[in-house]
Specification:
This protein has 8 helices and 19 strands. By secondary structure, the chain is of the alpha/beta class. The N and C termini lie far apart (48 Å). The chain binds flavin-adenine dinucleotide (FAD).
Length: 359
């Protein structure tokens, strides 16, 4: 059987990857989507909105993260792969979805090769790898949030076991939030704890003022590391900073209520937000010469093409969604960037490009 060479391979099936895949298949392209949701715990950020309904995503009026992820899958399933003729050429269009955590991306002549671990990871069992070839690739793998170092179990094998208690409360109405713009409305005029350090965390406090003026910053045992200018505003706005280490969560079922601190005191709040930074899902790009910002997010041009160190587009490589550098992107932006990337990847495959006028 002839080896399949896809027109567009999309890494990730969040809103950015889904939209890129749908837009490319709408341009009659044969699209492969590799998503790690079932073979790893990297399920995309929207998934973690476990009991909080996402209220500001287009077309989905109030939907939890797991249901949103299912709807995105259904949307892609509605475009199965079919054959069609273009002139005398037999072609394929549609979306093929495969479980796979992409671990490596390499160039082989005009093609891009993806290596993916395609079975659920099991202790002591070797990885099962599959290889795919495509003319273009859209990187829509997003990032993971860094979680607070509370009741952290360093010996546990997996991230989710290491942060087991944190995850119990994450993504719930009365649990850990990671995005003030997304979940601030749940705590209007309520007392909000914000965990993090440096001027960076003051950005979250600035965002919180749309919802409440009762804010406490917790540094979890670290010096606050805020500049004098920020500290002045913090004092003017009566924001309390507590530098004591947090010993454990106090909660009921999946509701987080407060913390027992290392000095034995207990602190209670209505809402909890953490911003300790992010981990970009780009390990498979190791060895590539591409531009990224100080957080590791990809710098792309207006056509969502990835750029090399000289600012030149890297042929065949596009990016979309949260993984793209910029002000924190949300779902609607992920759809928009996904559409741009899907269309640009499709356009790059055209046989004829606009003639260059040499007169
Ligand atoms: C708790 C929470 C609540 C939120 N609430 C809102 C809200 O109310 N409104 C809003 O607009 N935004 C909200 N957001 C933000 C929103 O979820 C993100 O902006 C959006 O999901 C980004 O879309 P994306 O497609 O770029 O990335 P993601 O949704 O993160 O998707 C990334 C995809 O890549 C896959 N992946 C990662 N690595 C690999 C790999 N190596 N190989 C294969 N696949 C891989 C993942 O499985 C996933 O399918 C929230 C985020 C969180 C965490």
């Amino acid at each position: 059987m002839a080896e399949t060479i896809y027109d567009v391979a999309v890494i990730g099936a969040g809103p950015a990857g889904t939209q890129a895949a749908v837009s490319a298949s709408h341009q009659m392209k044969h699209v492969l989507v590799l998503h790690s949701g079932k073979v790893s715990f990297s399920r995309g950020r929207a998934y973690w909105s476990k009991s909080v309904e996402i209220e500001d995503a287009p077309v989905f009026p109030g939907i939890t993260g797991p249901n949103f992820a299912k709807e995105l899958m259904k949307w892609m399933e509605s475009r199965p792969v079919v054959d069609f003729m273009l002139g005398a050429e037999k072609r394929k269009t549609g979306i093929e979805m495969r479980d796979g955590l992409v671990t490596k991306l390499t160039r082989n002549g005009r093609l891009l090769e993806l290596e993916a671990s395609s079975k659920t990871l099991k202790r002591h069992a070797p990885l099962e790898m599959e290889r795919f070839k495509s003319r273009t690739v859209v990187v829509a793998s997003g990032f993971d949030d860094k979680w607070p170092d509370i009741e952290f179990q360093p010996g546990a094998e997996r991230l989710y076991k290491q942060y087991a208690t944190v995850f119990r409360y994450a993504g719930n109405r009365k649990g850990w939030h990671v995005c003030i713009r997304c979940d601030g409305h749940l705590h209007v005029n309520e007392h909000l704890a914000i965990l993090g350090v440096g001027d960076y965390i003051y950005d979250a406090a600035l965002g919180a003022q749309d919802f409440t003026d009762k804010i406490t910053i917790l540094t979890n045992g670290r010096p606050h590391r805020m500049s004098p200018a920020v500290l002045k505003q913090v004092a003017e706005r009566n924001i309390n900073i507590i530098e004591t280490k947090i010993k454990r969560h106090i909660g009921e079922k999946t509701d987080l209520l407060g913390f027992e601190m290392a000095d034995g005191t207990e602190l209670y709040f209505h809402g909890f937000l953490v911003d300790e930074g992010l981990i970009p899902n780009t390990k498979f790009l190791e060895g590539w010469d591409y531009q990224k910002d100080e957080e590791g997010l990809i710098i792309a041009n207006e056509d969502m093409q990835m750029l090399d160190r000289h600012g030149e587009p890297i042929p065949g490589l596009f990016a979309a969604g949260d993984i793209v550098s910029g002000e924190r992107n949300l779902i609607a932006t992920a759809f928009a960037l996904g559409q741009e990337a899907g269309l640009s990847a499709s356009d790059s495959l055209r046989k004829w490009q606009y003639p260059i006028d040499s007169s």
